[in-house]
Write a structure and sequence with these properties.
alpha+beta, binds zinc ion, OB fold (Dihydrolipoamide Acetyltransferase, E2P), 16% helix
């Protein structure tokens, strides 16, 4: 587990042990409320050892949800000790195929608007395909070293499919397009509230729709779906908002309209600039999905 809080202690007497620091009052900070000047003064509230924020403040490229972590060079036991995001390790192809067949592993070669997965969803057809244009080499992590494994079948090609049984899928292992190591879906979701910079690397982002803003009524007019996002200054730049930017016709195809306000939206894409805000732009239909409201509580508490 990563740390959600760290203790900021500005004036630690020199020679203090972690045990001494544990006794100091300090101020609890979150990765969001931490400022650059605190960088060398933050400690684990549990063990008193120094921690660091990841990504480091001022890192323009980093967009992952920030967290605190113990410094890896310090060996000690702590209940809150951070572990990196778990990765499923496989030793041979059969293990991979078995997990795909039981549904505990989902490999997504690409999000596709063809919706082939919808038709073959309950058949075993997709377990035998190989070598088609969707295939790519996966590098699944084996014990100690990466292992090259040839293409594996994919059973999902759209975010809608993922959202359909969202509660079950959250704890399944997923390999997203361009990725090589299986991670749990719950660790792949990025809250747009945590995004503070553009990022070309695609990820699955989510946020609650607060407003729909159309530039006109024509099919090709731009429509912005605003997501809950607190205006802020990050890396000395103001970020006003975060939107899914698309066209009226594309929004219609995605099933998005004015009545979606209040719903959670999931989007797969890279983070781009939109004026003084951020957006996901050019998403395909398969790369966008509204979360069925019965699953809202899962994202509320993530
Ligand atoms: Zn600790």
């Amino acid at each position: 587990m990563t740390l959600k809080h760290a203790k900021y202690c500005k004036d630690v007497p020199s020679g203090s042990s972690p045990n001494d620091i544990k006794q100091l009052a300090g101020t609890l900070v979150t990765p969001e409320t931490m400022t650059v000047d605190m960088s060398n003064h933050i400690y684990c509230p549990e063990c008193g050892f120094p921690v660091f924020r990841s990504p480091r403040l001022g890192n323009q490229q980093a967009i992952r949800q920030p967290f605190f972590s113990h410094k890896p060079d310090v060996q000690h036991e702590c209940e809150l000790k951070s572990k990196s995001i778990p990765i499923r390790r496989y030793n041979d192809k059969n293990e991979v195929l078995k997990d795909i067949e039981t549904g505990s592993l989902v490999i997504i070669h690409e999000f596709s608007d063809d919706e082939i997965d919808e038709k073959s969803k309950n058949s075993s057809q997709h377990f035998v395909q190989s070598g088609n244009s969707n295939s790519r080499n996966l590098k699944l992590v084996g014990k100690g070293k990466n292992k090259e494994v040839n293409s594996f079948p994919s059973s999902m090609t759209s975010l809608k499919t993922i959202c359909r049984h969202f509660d079950e899928n959250l704890t399944k292992w997923f390999v997203l397009p361009e990725e090589h190591a299986p991670k749990k879906l719950v660790h792949l979701l990025v809250n747009v509230e945590s995004i503070e910079a553009i990022d070309l690397e695609k990820s699955i982002c989510y946020g609650r729709i607060t407003k729909v803003e159309r530039s006109g009524t024509r099919d090709d007019n731009v429509v912005n779906f605003h997501l809950a996002y607190e205006r802020r200054v990050a890396n000395k730049q103001t970020i006003a908002d975060f939107t899914l930017r698309t066209t009226n016709i594309q929004a219609y195809r995605m099933g998005l309209n004015d009545s979606c306000v209040g719903h959670y939206l999931l989007m797969y894409g890279s983070i781009q600039e939109r004026g003084i805000g951020l957006c996901i732009w050019d998403a395909k239909k398969s790369e966008v999905a509204l979360l069925p409201q019965k699953y809202d509580y899962l994202l509320d508490t993530l």
